[in-house]
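Continuing the series of single-chain predictions for the mutant panel. This is the parent chain; the variants come on the following pages.
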Amino acid sequence: MSAPLVFDRALVRRRLRRALGAGYADFLLGRAVEDLDERLASVLRAFPLALDLGTPTDAATAALEASGRAESIVRLAGMGELGRPGRLVVGDEEILPFAPESFDLAISLLALHGVNDLPGALIQLRRALKPDGLFLGCLLGGGTLIELRQSFAQAEAELEGGISPRVAPFADVRDLGALLQRAGFALPVADVEPVAVRYADAFGLMRDLRAMGLSNALLERRRAPLRRATLMRMAQIYAQRFADADGRVRATFEVVWLSGWAPHESQQKPLRPGSAKTRLADALGTVEHSLGEKAGHPS
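Parent structure:
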């Protein structure tokens, strides 16, 4: 069964191309690149061939090259990336044009939240990794832009008698961890880093979203232009509900980090149930009680 279509992928690519041409707002991506470097620092190995999957700019590739952790790096990006340095393959994150077991490392920063078939993309990523190859990436999670979502919903309910989708339905961290397991990754880990950004008003946030190529590209978006009255009411609600004491408003970006390994016989495996040689109660220095028995104080 095919994945449901949530995003207009052609529009996603056009919006990103326009953002790159006009001056990409890289504050969130820059932070992700720094986090990537820190996370890879704990992996005591070099990677002969790495894949950078869909990262909006070449910043992650440049960081990998500078660190020396990858000997050669291939970037997969859309047409808007043509002419940038590095070994570039033009393609789509949902249809990987690589043979199985091609890469020792795959990274992807702030790209996979905009695909329609995330489970399929992760399966393809795992297949593209050599045995014991590592995937490490991040995408926007379910708490992202919760303030903007709520403000638009209230404004439209008040002025237009209904709510239209304005902010993408980003996935929850627990669901993303389960998708790693479903894709066949070994030792899967998903963790969240919330990032709060402050603005003078909601319009500053919306300018940054356009400059990151993240304005509304949902297939079910309302096609009629946004009414000025609705936009102004949204900004008013945002300021009333989400402003700090100094009057500046907060915007939440929930960055979910994912990591997993292509299976290999050398990796750690969980013990079989019942195979432990030491009781938990002995390790904790406590008394073990059978089922139904209540712990009490000695008389």
